[in-house]
Design goal:
With about 170 residues, this protein is an all-alpha fold. The chain has one domain. The chain is built from 6 helices and no strands. Helix 1 packs antiparallel against helix 4. The model has no long low-confidence stretch (mean pLDDT about 90).
């Protein structure tokens, strides 16, 4: 196995704890919004976008936990080819973490901040720069997605794609 069982257990523990924190935050926001007319505001940082961002992050962490279990199971069963595929997927950054925060109102909720701080511990587990992206998400002064001006957003994406060294 690429990682020993203790390391995998540690990674699973962090993922599981972060997932529980984000689910708590989702529940808190759902209770806060209960009984109110549905908010159809699609602006970055709106209550609806905040819930969408949290949902994206919880799904991403759930997928990573599932992938970790598959990897460990395939490796333990001697299915090396299947284990290798899961290992490659497992090492990729969780889908929408921390990018789900781009939709979320500031200040971020306490449970969201704590979950992201926990996930920073997995910087060396995930491929390149995970902690730096979490730091950027935590420092962002406001939500940025969806953009107010889609054409400017597309133009900026084209500029960044053609600029050497732009990320």
């Amino acid at each position: 196995m690429d990682h020993d069982v203790d390391k995998l257990r540690d990674v699973a523990g962090v993922l599981n704890e972060a997932l529980a924190l984000l689910k708590t935050e989702e529940h808190r926001l759902a209770e806060h919004r209960a009984g109110r007319e549905r908010d159809h505001d699609d602006r970055a940082g709106s209550p609806g976008q905040t819930v969408i961002g949290l949902g994206e992050m919880t799904r991403g962490l759930r997928e990573k936990l599932d992938g970790l279990a598959l990897y460990a199971g395939f490796a333990a069963l001697g299915l090396e080819k299947r284990a290798e595929g899961e290992r490659r997927r497992l090492r990729m950054e969780p889908r929408c973490v921390p990018s789900g925060t781009n939709r979320m109102a500031r200040p971020l909720g306490e449970a969201t901040v704590r979950a992201l701080q926990l996930l920073r511990e997995l910087d060396t587990f995930f491929a390149g720069g995970f902690a730096a992206r979490i730091d950027e998400a935590l420092a962002a002064p406001r939500a940025t997605y969806p953009p107010a001006d889609w054409e400017a957003y597309r133009r900026q994406g084209r500029i960044e794609a053609t600029t050497p060294g732009a990320s």
